[in-house]
Amino acid sequence: MSLALKLARQGRDGVKANPMVGCVVVKDDQIIAKGYHKTFGEAHAEINALEQINHRANGTTLYVTLEPCSHQGKTPPCAQAIINACVQRVVIATLDPNPLVSGQGLALLEAANIQVNVGLLENEALMLNRGFIKRMQTGLPFVTCKIAMSLDGKTAMASGESQWITGEAARTDVQHLRAKHQALMTGSGTILSDNPSMTVRLDASTVSPLRVVIDSRQQITDKTLNIFSDDAPTLILDPNNGKTLENGKLDLTDALKQLGDQGINTVLLEAGPNLIGAMVESHLIDEFIIYTAPILMGSHANSMATLALSAMADKIQLQLSDIRMVGDDIRITANIKT
Hints:
The chain is an alpha/beta fold. Helix content is 25%, strand content 24%. The strands form 3 sheets. The chain has an 8-stranded mixed beta sheet with strand order 10-9-8-11-6-12-15-14. A 5-stranded mixed beta sheet has the order 2-1-3-4-5. 40% of the residues are buried.
């Protein structure tokens, strides 16, 4: 199963709205076939593995990271292909939250008298497809908020100057972080003050995610801004195509729902303190990745988030899940305690 999870990650760039899935077929304690879901709309992991043995799997155990599908979608049902190949036993890391599957693949296999075990390395499988799982359960993508700040919690000088707070190693790490997401989100204020490209700057083969700009006041009109470069598609969400609240701001839940409806599983938020604060207040951030530089920027600099908290009782507590050094900077992964 560990190998199947490793294989599944290879499909990150190709599966788009679909989950990443890996599969390994074993007979007499020997791996005889392996595969993963490579491309959206094409063969799933189980089919890619079974094709290597001409769909002849008598006496085998098939390990798969997600419950085999049981419905006809863009491809035929994998559960039926497993039955037809005469697989003896199926080990599933976790069940599929997609309501079109959700236990039905398991039931189909068991009805065919195939031995099925569920839960091997389940936590790892859930982490692998946490964006897909959240979208299936809520209609919203998994949102990670990336912040680069000083040791005293500042993200820009009062003038707006912010290049560069962190070192080169951290900035390279951010490029890899961007590449793991389907969409990058920011606000119109960041676009107007920094004119960022919001692309992945790694090797030429790396595909940049969809760029999403929250523009409540319809300020983004200059088509020469870097956000409109040909390097990646761009979606401007403003009152013309988004739901507006009574305060005139865009409904951020609705904005994320629009992305979920497009099959976006994962969003990386890179924004100024106002949008980050609004996302926190709306309970829309699932995870923080905070790069902290060993510098002090002083009391006049801008804080990481605009949050009008006045009492200790109002404090927002984070739960840390990982702390590591990236060059001279500290990378902290955390989520808001519920």
